Amino acid sequence: MDFLLKIYTWLSDGLNFILPIALVGVGLFFFFVTRAVQFRFFRIGLKNLLSGQANKTLDSTNISPLQAFMTGLASRVGIGNIAGVASAITAGGAGAIFWMWFAALLGMASAFAESSLAQLYKTRNSEGQFVGGPAFYIAQGLKLPIVGVIFSICLAFTYGFAFNSIQANQIANTLEANFHINTTTTAIIVTALTAFVIFGSLKAVSRASSSIVMVMSVFYILIGLAVLVVNYDRIIPAFESIFEGAFNLQAGFGGLFGTAVAYGIKRGLFSNEAGMGSAPNIAATASTKHPAEQGLVQMIGVCFDTFIICTLSALIILTTGIYTNTHYDNAALTSQSVITSLGDWASIAMSVIIFLFAFSSIIGNFAYSLSGLKYFTQSKFVRIVFTLAVCGIVYVGSVSSPESVWNAADFAMAIMTLLNLVAIVLLWKQVKLLVDDYKRQLNKKEQDEKYEVLFNSDLYPVLRDKLYHQSIWSRKLDETADDGIHKKTGYKIFGANDTENHR
């Protein structure tokens, strides 16, 4: 056991060193490949969301880009914004928040790349629903189906076990800190509730959880703003401490390998999931006219998660100031910061918010893990065993120390993320192809308002033999009915030689 522990520690330390560098490096790489897509197309993506364009779906079977955005946001906004930010500040000081921002800004390009690729390589299942994600673009785009299976296993383990142990742990620690409830008691209750849900109607509860998360997000924002009103005179000093802490010697030599950098980037990744390879599984389910459109939608989700929700959590903690002389950590620290500013009544409000955030994340994480499990096996027996194991890990996570569950999650998250980052870098030409195609068609739309932006895979021979049955993006005439309507997509086909309109 000592030998295995040394091997685990060696691997964990190595991955913790590599991951922040890889995230920043890949983010910079796609910043240049896409020519700063997060700046060039941000206004367009936001306009599509606000104008209702993203709420249009091409068929009744699949969800719209906006619905995929909301589902992805429900997954992102949660305990990571509350506990992850607190953990980053506790370990790396206020300067960790700067590096969280920095990583998110670059990560927006990575999020665009992975979600656009998920759209490009998606396919339909037997029920006519779109499915896709890193396992699909690894298997098809890179012709490495075995690696696709490995990624899906990592997805199932990371979300089913590692991340769910964190969610359960934060519920137990918060209730213990606020109401002195024994963690074992909480573990039994949370495990029972989890089993009841995931062995029941998971789909219905997942939809309800998404709605709950959005309501709780608004409630949390209002509470956070109330804290800032009370501590308004400490807001500017809080920002000053963030920038000072990011570059001083205590944050690490040059801020490159320091604790602030490492924890800021890792906890930011846990919250916004940019480059991790999880959000693409949701992005692929959207019915959209161009893969880049969904890439923009998910990119904006990263921005909202980090620059609004995470920043709010950071200001709650920094303006209160109790993090410098308290034993609280993670979600309990954020909760106590709110209670210190607003009074004891806030303990109930924060406990409810944290419980609902964390529990809905447990359900959402289980859905993610099932998508990974189903990629390589359809066995009902395996699913039952896996579900029981998830319930067991919820109990174990509730009674474990915060440090142990975070370390396990960091390890699992690093493996999964590195696999995905390598894949999207190797597929960079397809990402550039999508960006250039989208930009070219946007230019045409500016000249002709009636022009409809549609992606046509037949225009790019490089994609042949890579997409599933030419995917849903093929416009081949032999796949259309007599009236010229494409059988798979319902798009109008104008003719094989109609390259001017690129439809």
Automatic annotation (TrEMBL):
The UniProt keywords, alphabetically, are: Cell inner membrane, Cell membrane, Membrane, Symport, Transmembrane, Transmembrane helix, Transport
Lipid bilayer topology: Multi-pass membrane protein
Does the keyword NADP belong to this entry? no
**TM stretches of this protein:** 17-37, 73-92, 142-161, 181-200, 212-232, 299-325, 345-368, 380-399, 411-431
List the GO cellular component terms. plasma membrane
List, in alphabetical order, the Gene Ontology terms for molecular function in this entry: amino acid:sodium symporter activity
**InterPro entries reported for this sequence:** Na/Ala_symport
Tell me where on the tree of life, at the top rank, the source sits: Bacteria
Cross-referenced Pfam families: Na_Ala_symp
Q: Which family does it belong to?
A: Belongs to the alanine or glycine:cation symporter (AGCS) (TC 2.A.25) family.
Q: What is this protein called?
A: AGCS family alanine or glycine:cation symporter
Q: Does the keyword Transmembrane helix apply?
A: yes
Location within or outside the cell: Cell inner membrane; Cell membrane
